[in-house]
């Protein structure tokens, strides 16, 4: 069985996994990020790789390559992490540094959402003649588009779903970026403001809502309506065949999917509503970034 290493890099943690050609996650390890310094951050990446190899009793020589998912903008051809808002890696040569460290030629880097999307597309057995969209709702909001088997990247910044403006009650019925008013941290802040209760977390909001606390209903309504507005833009512009949702906010609260469908349907005309039957929540959840990166690690440079 051929194997590759997948690395999913974030501002809080770095996950590394050993992945088979079929997308099976054979081993996984995780270490904390160190965003205080670019070299210390790279050291943690190396530690994650060494740890997963040790746990699996394997060596780098057993691997076909390494795939790396990095937040923000990347230069895939040169293997450079160009810009991130949560890492100290501006213009950091990820691929060349990993080649020096581990001696593997095949090093592929891409945006972390693209890596997760690739895993979801493979898992969903996406068709080559269709348009597939992966949407992540977590600390941030973003999406990745796979059209006819290839990523749609535009001029390099396509998929920034969180930047779409929505008509937000939180912003006083003004247009505001979706991520600013409806990503994970924004939900907790909204609840604190509306309920005049300090220290409410996003997790608390969903737990209280599911427990039947009626004061949380308007908060859930507002957030899901914001998401539906953004999704309607995707529906109109791309008319995708399928959308899969990931990210901790929605993956940990699957009841949200039906609320989203209900609100999205209210925006759509009948010719667009085919999408409602092909919207789902990821079943590989927090492992999709590692698996997608691992699968991309088999690419020959």
UniProtKB/TrEMBL annotation:
Q: Which InterPro entries does this entry report, sorted A to Z? A: ATPase_NBD, ROK
Name the domain of life this protein comes from.
Bacteria
Which family would the database say this protein is a member of?
Belongs to the ROK (NagC/XylR) family.
Q: Could you tell me what this protein is called?
A: Glucokinase
High-level lineage: Bacteria, Bacillati, Bacillota, Bacilli, Bacillales
